[in-house]
Amino acid sequence: MTGDERNDVFTAGELRSFGFTEELVDRIMRFLDTSAADLSSSKPESVVQTAFGGAPASVTCSGHAGKARQHVVDAINDMVTGLHRYHSSLDGMRRRALSVDDTSEADINRLIVRAEDCAATPTVGSPSQCVAPTGGDS
User: Fold this and answer.
1) Which pTM does this prediction carry?
2) Residue 38 lies in a domain
3) For the chain, how many structural domains are there in total?
4) Angle 131-134-136 from CA coordinates, rounded to 5°
5) pLDDT greater at residue 11 or residue 64
6) Ramachandran angles phi, psi of 74, nearest 5°
7) According to the per-residue pLDDT averaged within each range, which of 11-20, 28-37, 51-60, 116-125 is highest?
8) Which of 17, 109, 118, 135 is most exposed, with the fewest beta carbons within 10 Å of its own?
9) Rounded distance, CA 27 to CA 110, Å?
10) pLDDT at 128 > cutoff 90
11) H-helix or E-strand containing 48?
12) Which are the contacts of 99, defined by CB distance < 8 A and separation ≥ 6?
């Protein structure tokens, strides 16, 4: 992850401060999965050609109803795809936030070890090699 990408990502702590707890994110993701499954299984019935009678205008009406049904099916499929994408985005946001926290924790632990090493009493055989940390040391 580059520095620019890291600036665009919230930490898990920041997400919690916005109200995005792990439990809430899990509940939202389950809701999105359930909603996508429910939508996917709720396709309108097909219109039989003689649904409006046998007259030529009735058959034309039936044809139009079939086309309208297909538009509804396409819209439902688009909504299901959108719910899956929202699920993926939310999961990606959570993963990136946890990754930032893990990276930050590793950086902090490395600096703590470095500070502890500097705080140790140097000996003649092992003189202190401490250098003050700079902004690029993280």
Assistant:
1) 0.60
2) yes
3) 1
4) 125
5) 64
6) -60, -40
7) 28-37
8) 135
9) 35
10) no
11) none
12) 1, 9
Coil vs helix vs strand at 132 = coil
Cβ atoms of 39 and 83 within 8 Å: the answer is yes
Burial class (CB in 10 A: 0-12, 13-18, 19+), 116: exposed
Between 77 and 105, residue with greater pLDDT = 77
N residues, the chain: 138
Identity at 44, one-letter amino acid code:
P
Instruction: List the one residue out of 89, 75, 84, 85 whose CA is nearest residue 25.
Output: 89
| 9 domain residue, yes or no | yes
Q: Report the phi/psi class of residue 47: left, alpha or beta, with left for phi > 0 and alpha for psi in -120 to 50.
A: beta
- Does residue 121 belong to any structural domain of this protein? no
Greater confidence, 76 or 112? 76
In a domain, residue 115? The reply is no
